[in-house]
Design a protein that fits this description.
It is built from no helices and 6 strands. It has 103 residues and is an all-beta fold. It has one domain.
């Protein structure tokens, strides 16, 4: 059996938060049976930030969906700076990005 709750929240025109939490119960498996994700996305003109954490525990058993693997936690972060130069007319916007991911 599977239980889940999810949410998508938007604040202003630039900030979005997506999240879910799921839990399964399977005969013969007990504990470590959850999965969850939290993702924050701030996408303004000058600055941008994305942060995400995804966890799938060892005994999470979706049975109704596709999970590539279990027992992992993934972290992701991306930061962007996009200035619009006033003194350099041929260029409308520069974009500088940095990202990292880890398991």
């Amino acid at each position: 059996m599977a239980y889940a709750i999810d949410g998508a929240f938007s604040f202003f025109s630039n900030l979005n938060i997506n999240t879910f939490l799921a839990k399964t119960t399977t005969p013969g498996r007990r504990g470590d049976d959850a999965s969850g994700r939290v993702q924050l996305d701030y996408n303004a003109d000058r600055y941008g930030v994305q942060i995400e954490r995804l966890t799938v525990q060892e005994n999470f058993n979706p049975e109704i969906g596709y999970v590539r693997r279990s027992d992992f936690t993934k972290h992701f972060a991306m930061f962007r700076f996009s200035p619009r130069p006033k003194r350099f007319a041929p260029v409308k916007k520069f974009a500088y990005e940095g990202a990292t991911t880890g398991m």
